[in-house]
Write a structure and sequence with these properties.
The protein is of the alpha+beta class. The chain contains two helices and nine strands, in the order H-E-H-E-E-E-E-E-E-E-E. Strand 8 and strand 9 form a beta hairpin.
Length: 160
Amino acid sequence: MNITPDRVLTAYAAVARELDLPDLEAAQLAIEREDLSSPEALAAWLDRMSPRSGWMVCQSSHWLMLGPDERPDADAGTWIEGEFQCEDGSAASFSHLGGGCWRALRFVEGEGEDCLVGRFMVRGTRGAPGRLLYRRYWNMEGGAPRVRACTFRGFEEARK
């Protein structure tokens, strides 16, 4: 049997209605990768991404970006990893590879390879203003959906 994105969407829609699952839809996703070799290059990359919200794990702390001009204090230490929602609608993330190197990724929806996308939320901790919102992208490699990427899409406002 040939499993196509349309067949997956049709089957998922029936199950999602029954179980009250989030929607799954067709999309496109482009992933741009940069390898960075200094803290200064990483800071410049983050400035180019124009993040409006996000989170970061630093050597000495966890840090939340709740506004576009916020950055960790200099005493936070090495930036280890982070995820951001950007002003242009893209998403970005980075991870420390060791040896003073980082891998930085930018995710652009509406360009690139065909995929399926759905949303999910993760419980916020350490002062987050609500749950963390994500989008999960699936490729149809080998005839079955496989996760291609998950991107941070902001914070859900805390319920009062």
